[in-house]
């Protein structure tokens, strides 16, 4: 690791001072707590959706925006937030994110109607983007490459998956014992404690040669992804040939194509083409999108199934996920001890195959089935996620420099959150709109859920294929000649 100092001849790079054990532990705690809070704010809402629908008297698309407003804002802002953190200082930007996220959580809790809630969720997503963009970079600054960093990344990966899986139980407890608004109020004390710990313990770091802001790119990608998700949600409720749906699709296509062309031509792009030219880094982003658009997106609909079809209480629905959550934590810890003894492409491809098989096994759910029918498949999928998350975090940092770790982490989180946003909207299009609300047809919902699980399984399997093709190291001429010599011998 390096740091930057300035003398009369300009900036120079000098070796960074090793961080104390207390600093490392405190930074890891801060990053894991905030990451858990961010992932919980996707997952806890899943359990609360039926209660929100009844309390705020909302329709299907507005209800889905409670999830997608958050993830979409996070996905589109995280790239700019990553470069901002590299430029202005990751600790400083992280503090801004904590304050922003905490204030937006209060606004969510006080929302008088569904539209204010959706807007507040988008604001929360912006704060989440700032925090996500800094998280891996803060860890990279205090943990040098080696076993300690591997263990820290395992904790970080387990936090991502575990918080998402345990979220339904936390959301269920808060919703059933208090009110759905409590799922947002709980962020306020967590945010204040995190703020104090960051000020006291987390060191500052930045890129000595930061990039400028890419405002046109930010506008184009935000417009394109928002139009895409809006079109998917609107089409499911109002028809795929509805003029508004077709207009949204056209806007999404134009904006996203324009974004790609702009990134190829601008001097300081928010999504640098040279990073995606790295096959391993690009393959990692596709894999991150695949697991988010499959496993993490389908959690929304399995949670609705448990409550609206099997008529479980929010707490009972959350308890169903506990065995899978435990499996995810155990596997993530074991993965850290391997410390890349298994090639990355094998770890990631096998993990995504486990997710794919698990999702297909979950199609055993039925209208009158047991609440535990989906548990074998869910556990298998979460085992895959437990392997995936720490390996992915290590790969992202390994394929970037420490100076650009904020940008690299931002790109990875953008693909993750875009996967959840597009996955929720896309998989939701396979379920009849009215079946998603309390009182809807359980048979229609279960049929649609079967289709969504199968499509999600295909997405995860395609992600595994991408890992094999793009992450497998290329053979060198020397290796080829040795193999030929061995055959001849």
Structural class, please? Answer: mainly alpha
Strand order of the largest sheet: 1-2
Strand content: under 5%
Characterize the overall form.
globular
CATH-derived architecture of the largest domain = Up-down Bundle
Largest β sheet strand count, sense and barrel closure: 2 strands, antiparallel
Per CATH, what is the topology of the largest domain? Growth Hormone, Chain: A
What do we call the CATH homologous superfamily of the largest domain? MFS general substrate transporter like domains
CATH class placement of the largest domain: Mainly Alpha
Number of domains: 2
First-last Cα distance: 46 Å
> How large, in whole angstroms, is the Cα Rg?
22 Å
In N-to-C order, the SSE pattern is EEHHHHHHHHHHHHHHHHHH
- Secondary structure tally: strands: 2
Please bin the fraction of helical residues. over 70%
């Amino acid at each position: 690791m390096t740091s930057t100092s300035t003398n009369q001849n300009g900036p120079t790079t000098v070796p960074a001072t090793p961080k104390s054990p207390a600093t490392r532990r405190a930074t890891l705690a801060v990053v894991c707590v905030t990451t858990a809070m961010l992932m919980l704010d996707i997952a806890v809402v899943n359990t609360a959706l039926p209660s929100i629908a009844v309390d705020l008297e909302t329709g299907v698309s507005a209800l889905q925006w409670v999830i997608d407003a958050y993830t979409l804002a996070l996905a589109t802002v995280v790239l700019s937030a990553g470069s901002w953190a590299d430029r202005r200082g990751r600790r400083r930007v992280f503090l801004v994110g904590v304050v922003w996220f905490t204030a937006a959580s209060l606004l969510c809790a006080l929302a008088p109607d569904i539209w204010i809630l959706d807007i507040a969720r988008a604001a929360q997503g912006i704060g989440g983007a700032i925090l996500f963009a800094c998280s891996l970079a803060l860890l990279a600054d205090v943990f040098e490459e080696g076993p300690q960093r591997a263990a820290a990344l395992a904790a970080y990966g387990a936090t991502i998956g575990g918080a998402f899986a345990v979220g339904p139980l936390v959301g269920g407890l808060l919703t059933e014992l208090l009110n759905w608004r409590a799922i947002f109020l709980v962020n306020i004390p967590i945010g204040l404690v995190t703020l104090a710990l960051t000020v006291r313990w987390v060191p500052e770091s930045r890129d000595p040669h930061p990039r400028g802001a890419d405002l046109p790119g930010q506008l184009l990608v935000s417009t394109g992804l928002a139009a895409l998700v809006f079109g998917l949600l609107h089409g499911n409720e109002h028809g795929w040939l509805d003029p508004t749906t077709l207009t949204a699709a056209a806007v999404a296509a134009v904006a996203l194509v324009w974004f790609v062309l702009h990134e190829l031509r601008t001097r300081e792009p928010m999504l640098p083409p040279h990073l995606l030219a790295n096959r391993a880094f690009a393959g990692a982003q596709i894999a991150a999108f695949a697991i988010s658009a499959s496993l993490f997106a389908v959690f929304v609909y399995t949670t609705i199934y448990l409550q609206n079809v099997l008529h479980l209480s929010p707490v009972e629905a959350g308890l169903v996920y506990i065995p899978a959550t435990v499996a995810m934590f155990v596997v993530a810890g074991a993965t850290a001890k391997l410390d890349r003894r298994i090639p990355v492409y094998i770890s990631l491809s096998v993990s995504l195959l486990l997710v794919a098989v698990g999702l297909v096994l979950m199609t055993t759910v039925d209208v009158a089935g047991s609440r535990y029918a989906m548990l074998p498949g869910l556990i298998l999928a979460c085992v895959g996620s437990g392997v995936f998350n720490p390996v992915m975090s290590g790969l992202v940092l390994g394929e970037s420099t420490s100076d650009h770790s904020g940008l690299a982490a931002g790109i990875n989180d953008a693909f993750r959150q875009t996967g959840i946003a597009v996955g929720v909207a896309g998989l939701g299009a396979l379920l009849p709109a009215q079946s998603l609300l309390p009182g809807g047809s359980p048979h229609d919902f279960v049929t649609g859920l079967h289709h969504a699980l199968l499509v999600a399984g295909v997405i995860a399997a395609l992600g595994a294929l991408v890992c094999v093709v793009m992450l497998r190291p290329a053979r060198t001429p020397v290796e080829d000649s040795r193999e030929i010599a061995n055959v001849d011998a």
